Amino acid sequence: xxxxxxxxxxxxxxxxxxxxxxxxxxxxxxxxxxxxxxxxxxxxxxxxxxxxxxxxxxxxxxxxxxxxxxxxxxxxxxxxxxxxxxxxxxxxxxxxxxxxxxxxxxxxxxxxxxxxxxxxxxxxxxxxxxxxxxxxxxxxxxxxxxxxxxxxxxxxxxxxxxxxxxxxxxxxxxxxxxxxxxxxxxxxxxxxxxxxxxxxxxxxxxxxxxxxxxxxxxxxxxxxxxxxxxxxxxxxxxxxxxxxxxxxxxxxxxxxxxxxxxxxxxxxxxxxxxxxxxxxxxxxxxxxxxxxxxxxxxxxxxxxxxxxxxxxxxxxxxxxxxxxxxxxxxxxxxxxxxxxxxxxxxxxxxxxxxxxxxxxxxxxxxxxxxxxxxxxxxxxxxxxxxxxxxxxxxxxxxxxxxxxxxxxxxxxxxxxxxxxxxxxxxxxxxxxxxxxxxxxxxxxxxxxxxxxxxxxxxxxxxxxxxxxxxxxxxxxxxxxxxxxxxxxxxxxxxxxxxxxxxxxxxxxxxxxxxxxxxxxxxxxxxxxxxxxxxxxxxxxxxxxxxxxxxxxxxxxxxxxxxxxxxxxxxxxxxxxxxxxxxxxxxxxxxxxxxxxxxxxxxxxxxxxxxxxxxxxxxxxxxxxxxxxxxxxxxxxxxxxxxxxxxxxxxxxxxxxxxxxxxxxxxxxxxxxxxxxxxxxxxxxxxxxxxxxxxxxxxxx
Length: 700
Known about the structure:
Oligomer: single chain
Structural class: alpha/beta
Radius of gyration: 38 Å
Strand order of the largest sheet: 1-3-4-2-5
CATH topology of the largest domain: Isoleucyl-tRNA Synthetase, Domain 1
């Protein structure tokens, strides 16, 4: 590069790092910046040092920032390092490990620079000075020499350590690297070909982004703990890589022709390098053990999205390189657990929920089920103690169901075949258990754990406990011994099936109940965790489904109307059925006592609905509840209208908030989400009130 002609104006550069100016090796300008085009390729003299450095054209320089010319310090700035590589610039490190300027001794710093009084003064004044102090001292000296054009405030990003919060200083050191790009190619191909599948699949985009833009991987760390780098140095710097000291010594003896003393590299391997070997190193590798043959590759890796690159990608690279096979078939990326408002937990916010506290209060099963039930793919979990408490109540419900079975001698029978059941209720619950088995199994296969948890929850609580156990009470207490025996066997069969389906979610309570039931059956049963997963037995029965479905719907509709109309819980009401077909009449005859008991009916007859009766349509029939003498219909109508007005007002306010762009964009995310949830709840309440009001108006 040429020197600039005498009289050429100085080149003004902007910097936030005056302490590194003594390590500059170029000035960069944008190739399209007309102000500097004529200077590209020329040299300038670096103040305080006297080093001649070139002006280079590089798109890193932003013509709109500062003067448009930027100093380049490849050894102490990440971006400058890349510019230095592109232009083949010298990389002069002037910072020691303690953050002090290291100018003497420093052969790179003085190479090619005349030993002028200015250089000597710079070394004398700044050598050994901490970078923070050097920043002010160098700025002061530049100002004293008339080389400072101006100082102005400037906001910019400064990297800090996540634990120490200290400013991170880029500096050049010798490190060990892995050619990650070569290792990444097979790992990218394996996911593209479906040999390994991410669930949810959208996380493959994150994986590909990292892998396709991967840089050489620095695997050496200057720490006191870890797996030491397997490299030894001879006195002349020759490197010997081996598995152990003996191997390195043998290599050195071959090289030097005699035994020599070697020094092992003090660095340790990056934690993620060691972790990348985990899928096979834990199974006895490099030996060919039975465990390695049996368990590699594994089926599923469950992990968080934040370590897809740090761990998942590196296990993929290492597994394919070392074992020539992917380490796992599926990668399930689980959601982040946040607090009940949707905020990330942190000690500084004081919103951390300690799982041990929840376990102590509600039990491990309740917490485990909560996390599974809320683990919808692509959505973070909003964890609250109230949700855990709700699932603790579910465990209590299950325990009480098992106690009911015990008290009524519903014990497992080895000779019982559920397909031979004759009682309609038993054929129905067998089919319901079949549907629950299918729903849970399919959801687990698809990693939709929330759907699997929801399916078994609904079956245990709302089908088995709420309906089946309630409906079979008259059979167990009745005189038909054959029906009672079948019902006891079916109740036990379905309960055992439910325990198996629930075991992955609530292992402790289900294992305990399984052991107790084995004792009741006088069997030596093995652990539930070792029991086979239930197999479909083709137990669904359309006729039983239709009949029991009709029964449940009728009772539910009557209960719903009673609740909507504020009918006192202890009051029994008459029910009239109009337009009933022969099948409906036969069902009423078979289940009349059950309808009277569970719907809290005074009478159950067929006939024309009287004026003022609340009407419900069920299949071809119309159900009529004459409530005129039980509730004040006019007062009830006014109450419902008041409730409607109140909910309508709330909905109006919520809609106004959520349609306000400023509120949605500026309010915290959890606040906006809370308003949306309130709107959904209010809309549901409004719909129920509207239905109840229309029923009342139709009765008048």
